[in-house]
Amino acid sequence: MSRMRQFFFSILAIICMSAGLYAQQVTLSPDQIKALTPDWTGERSADGRPHVSDRLLERVKKIHIEEAWGVLRNKGFQNQYEGDWDIMLPDSAMSGRVVTAQYWPLRPDYDKMMKDKGKAEGRIGATNSWPIDVLKNGDVYVADSYGKIVDGTLIGDNLGNSIYAKSHRGVIFYGSVRDIEGLEEIQGFNYWTKGNDPSYIQQMMLGGINVPIRIGRATVLPGDVVLAKKGGIVFIPAYLVEEVVINAEFISLRDAFGHQRLREGKWTPGQIDTQWTDEIKKDFMKWLDENPGKLPMSRVELDKFMKDRTW
Prior knowledge:
Blueprint: H1 3-19, H2 30-36, H3 54-62, H4 65-74, E1 81-82, E2 86-87, E3 94-105, H5 108-120, H6 130-133, E4 139-144, H7 157-167, E5 171-174, E6 176-177, H8 180-184, E7 191-193, E8 195-196, E9 204-209, E10 213-215, E11 218-220, E12 225-229, E13 232-236, H9 241-264, H10 269-272, H11 278-290, H12 299-307
Parallel strand pairs: 3-4, 4-5, 5-7, 6-8
Antiparallel strand pairs: 1-13, 2-7, 3-9, 3-12, 10-11, 12-13
Helix pairs in contact: 1-2, 4-9
């Protein structure tokens, strides 16, 4: 079978599973995830997801939502943002590698197929615990539970503790959680949800793990890198993370320079907010030399980036 045919059938399998046409497996296979994310050429996790480095994850966490959003829009990715969240710790940012889960309203025949397949694979417990079992350090559990609040609570404090122990991260649910007082006691844990409720999960079923999902306005793939802040959430395709980060960091440097020079009265707003003159560019380069501690990237990375930039 040619590579093109292999790719076609892998994508067909992904589409069929995501659409709920059959329940051949609980999660996509590593080969299917690779077929879903062909532009990533770096390291991958054992499950096939792109494995963006811990160093880049830390840098992602420091950039602004608007900066990441702007770079993605310019690359043609116009559906990677979702806002209006209930956040446990609004002033704490979170970044990580996405593990996805899809939930649907309960349909008994499909639910039985999924549970039978999970049992054959050795999965234990309720199906809403299965995505938690696959989490590794640096992962973020992202679930679409179609905005269900009452009887749609995917986790409480017990599962929250398990999530944090495995991932050292929190969760993003297009749905709800329960036991928020208990969740607040988990040091380092955070959540972005559409609400909370004291009820427990009912009339819902797991549709799949590490499948493509929709989170409000955004389409999310397994292995995406998520940036979650109080201003909203951006999902970044893994192969674009480095480009998004370096562009966002450069924008932040430009802004820091511009703000300082405006306060000093050296340049006017009209000069800073339009195409920079050669004099401003020289001043910026001098400012960079004088403020090496402000650089979030290495100087080699910055020089390489600026070489190809038209300002």
